[in-house]
Design goal:
about 25% strand; four-stranded antiparallel β-sheet; alpha/beta; Rossmann fold; about 325 residues; Alpha-Beta Plaits; single chain
Length: about 325
């Protein structure tokens, strides 16, 4: 049984606007599913329907085996939600909020404190646990919100752009926690504006544009649709480019070489081909002055499928060590 199963899901507003126009996708248990889309594409509307904050006007969706329209309470019992704007009581301490959340979810009193302490530690807030949330930075509040979403050990976790605007340390902490959740078997539905984040964390990616799913698959498969990685090679001295091209034909199809590059060749295996290519050229007497592996990115996939670049695509993303 799929952790999330969406069939013909639609949302039309009274104004006549069709924000989601009949989409289909499924998410397997324990999978991290990246959901990408430009502003106004229907991404947020889809998430709000899946977490039972908005009722579908057509189609169906089940989360953790329960229908979001007819069984919303059963869905809520099994999901955790960390939306982009964390709704936190600023006058309470981090520990007080965690313990309150645990109590509201019916966690036995004898387990409340230990469960709260464990999660506060996991998101790196142990030293700030007794401080009021009003003193927390934006990144600390996002981490606390994530911990609160995990207090009842949900089957499915929805993260809505969890690292937007965070410093590199907070972002790295959240990335590590998503990986830990996946290892523990939690299903994660991740919306993000950072393509590198989706590439690093997601098992599969769905791209929505104008209310429709325009692409879906693993990051590697989607990038392969755009084109194979290729090596751009420049030589220190080369009197026989014809011979160099003939040698490189054994590795893949030759491509038009950009300015300043002597030869460009597609390589299906990507980085694994670098050493063999250099070895063959060296044995034939060619001295490689520069070599660059150029691979399609999710940004390229997004641009081809939607006709635009994602807003956060150009922003640097610090990957955890």
């Amino acid at each position: 049984m799929a952790a999330i199963d969406v069939r013909g899901l639609q949302r039309e507003y009274k104004s006549g606007l069709k924000a989601v126009r009949g989409i289909d996708f499924s998410v397997a248990p324990g999978e991290v599913y990246g959901f990408l889309g430009p502003n106004g594409a229907g991404k947020t509307t889809t998430v709000r329907m899946l977490v039972t904050l908005l009722r579908p006007t057509g189609g169906s969706a089940t989360v953790a085996g329960f229908d979001v329209a007819s069984e919303p309470a059963r869905v809520r019992e099994r999901i955790g939600v960390a939306l982009q704007e964390a709704a936190l009581d600023l006058l309470m301490t981090g520990r007080e909020l965690m313990e309150l959340q645990a109590t509201l979810h019916g966690i036995p009193a004898r387990e409340v404190r230990s469960r709260a302490e464990e999660l506060i530690g996991r998101v790196g807030l142990s030293e700030a646990a007794r401080r009021r949330v009003a003193t927390y930075s934006g990144g600390m509040r996002r981490r606390l919100d994530l911990a609160m979403a995990l207090i009842h050990e949900p089957e499915v976790l929805f993260l809505d752009e969890p690292t937007t605007g965070l410093d590199p340390t907070s972002r790295a902490t959240l990335w590590d926690e998503v990986r830990r959740l996946k290892a523990d078997g939690t299903t994660v539905f991740l919306t993000t504006q950072y393509l590198e984040e989706a590439d690093q964390l997601a098992d599969r990616v769905g791209i929505i544009a104008d209310g429709l799913i325009v692409a879906e698959g693993t990051p590697a498969a989607l990038k392969a649709e755009i084109g194979l990685p290729h090596l751009d090679i420049s030589f220190a001295e080369c009197s026989d480019l014809v011979q160099a091209r003939e040698l490189l034909l054994g590795f893949g199809e030759l491509r038009p070489a950009p300015e300043g590059v002597d030869v460009s060749v597609a390589v299906a295996a990507g980085a694994a081909e670098i050493a063999p290519v250099v070895r063959v050229l060296d044995e034939a007497g060619f001295t490689v002055a520069a070599l660059q592996l150029v691979a399609p990115s999710l940004d390229d996939v997004f641009a081809e499928k939607t006709g635009r670049r994602l807003e956060g695509a150009a922003e640097p993303v610090a990957a955890p060590a």
